[in-house]
Design a protein that fits this description.
Layout: E1 4-7, E2 11-14, E3 23-25, H1 26-33, H2 37-45, E4 52-54, E5 57-61, H3 62-70
């Protein structure tokens, strides 16, 4: 049984031939993080998330996404009462 990845629900490409994504569209970032589109634009306005335009679409480069995720702060453990 061969493992494959569906691309745009039209074409089946063998998994070993699929390149790692170099960028994400906003919808993908929203799905991966659970954040709203407005929150992502707010992060961009604060200079925390780099957004780019490509053919009228707003994208996030994979390395910028990883950098942004890595900038999240750790949450301190709750103190016992």
């Amino acid at each position: 049984m061969q493992t494959s990845v569906k691309h745009r629900k039209l074409l089946t490409i063998p998994k070993e031939m699929v390149m790692e994504l170099r960028f994400y569209v906003m919808k993908q970032v929203m799905e991966m993080t659970g954040f709203s589109r407005q929150h992502l634009y707010n992060e961009h306005a604060r200079g925390k998330l780099v957004l780019k335009k490509a053919g009228g679409r707003t994208i996030v480069m994979a390395e910028d996404f990883e950098r942004w995720i890595g900038s999240f702060h750790n949450v301190a453990p709750a103190k016992a009462a």
